[in-house]
Amino acid sequence: MSGTSTPGGAGPTREPFGARLAAAMAAHGPLCVGIDPHASLLDAWGLPDDAAGLRRFSLTVMEAVGGLVAAVKPQAAFFERHGSAGVAVLEEVVAAGRETGTLVVVDAKRGDIGSTMSAYAEAFLRDGSPLAGDALTVSPYLGFGSLDPAVDLALSSGRGLFVLCLTSNKEGHEVQHARTDADGEAGPTVAALMASRAAALNAGAQPLGSVGLVVGATVGDAAERTGTDLTSVNGPLLAPGVGAQGAGPAELAAVFGSARHQVLASSSRGVLRAGPDVASLRAAALLAAQDAAAALS
């Protein structure tokens, strides 16, 4: 995350997240490496399931892929499970991203209302907060408008959001595929409504807006079936599920179609299982980036 001083010392400025992400994807390929320190992965690396093991794991990943891939995505829950010491490690990961010029998407899926949502936004999107990466995942299922504090702070600080839209968990359809009620008639699906709200915020942005969507790479034809126009979003599409979770070129083409150029493919286990050797992790990340680029071309 880069910043420069404005004239008169008014504080840091940065390009909008969407523009910075587009540049990073062009330079390094459309890959985001998920940093998901499951207990089983720590064990596979020969590390203890504690804050020290978490720190060794996470900083080893950053040493391997920092400056090499478009983005990393630390999953906040796996840091929070270790309490304050784990959150301190998450702060180190965010700082390592800044030092290596690698975009950091903090995967915390925050969603609430009013002052509570404002507090989440301050924690993860405010300049000077040690948890503020370059983007944050958020949940809109208290109504898209409940995200306004995060939207406002993200856009004013040059950061971004990834809004949950079509997720690959088997329960997701209960909410995301449901149809809204418009004057007593069936309206658009909830997923389509979320996409349209993001599209409105991204209108006119070049080359990409900063309010993206989370769309699972394994959702099949869900976008088509729910009437969700991913191309018109004009923002990045974060696609978990690439690699070890089953999504390859055919699945990516089926899910995203003509919106493939907007996709930031997320892979975690496919890269992380190559550790703890730094060179092996780096090679796995490079291969995953090449595969993602080929699949999304």
Description:
The protein has 297 residues and is of the alpha/beta class. The protein has one domain (29-168, 197-219, 228-296): TIM Barrel (Alpha-Beta Barrel), CATH 3.20.20. Helix content is 43%, strand content 19%. It contains 13 helices and 12 strands. The protein has helices spanning 17-28, 39-44, 51-65, 76-80, 83-100, 114-125, 148-156, 173-176, 190-202, 222-225, 249-256, 269-272, 278-296; strands at residues 4-5, 12-13, 31-35, 71-74, 103-110, 135-138, 160-166, 179-182, 185-189, 211-215, 237-240, 263-267. The strands form 3 sheets. Strands 3-4-5-6-7-10-11-12 form an 8-stranded parallel barrel, surrounded by 7 helices. A two-stranded antiparallel sheet has the order 1-2. Strands 8-9 form a two-stranded antiparallel ribbon. Strand 6 (135-138), helix 7 and strand 7 form a beta-alpha-beta unit. The longest helix has 19 residues, at 278-296. The radius of gyration is 18 Å and the shape is globular. 50% of the residues are buried. Mean pLDDT is 92; it is low at 1-11. GO terms for molecular function: orotidine-5'-phosphate decarboxylase activity. It catalyses: orotidine 5'-phosphate + H(+) = UMP + CO2. It comes from Cellulomonas fulva. Pathway: Pyrimidine metabolism; UMP biosynthesis via de novo pathway; UMP from orotate: step 2/2. This is Orotidine 5'-phosphate decarboxylase.
Total number of beta strands: 12
Strand % is: 15-25%
CATH evolutionary superfamily: Aldolase class I
Cα-to-Cα separation, first versus last residue = 26 Å
Which runs of at least 5 residues are low in confidence (pLDDT < 50)? 1-11
Apparent shape: globular
- CATH architecture annotation: Alpha-Beta Barrel
Strand order of the largest sheet: 3-4-5-6-7-10-11-12
Mean pLDDT: 92
Number of spatially distinct domains: 1
> CATH top level?
Alpha Beta
Please, how many helices?
13
Protein name: Orotidine 5'-phosphate decarboxylase
Catalytic activity: orotidine 5'-phosphate + H(+) = UMP + CO2
Family: Belongs to the OMP decarboxylase family. Type 2 subfamily.
Pfam family, one: OMPdecase
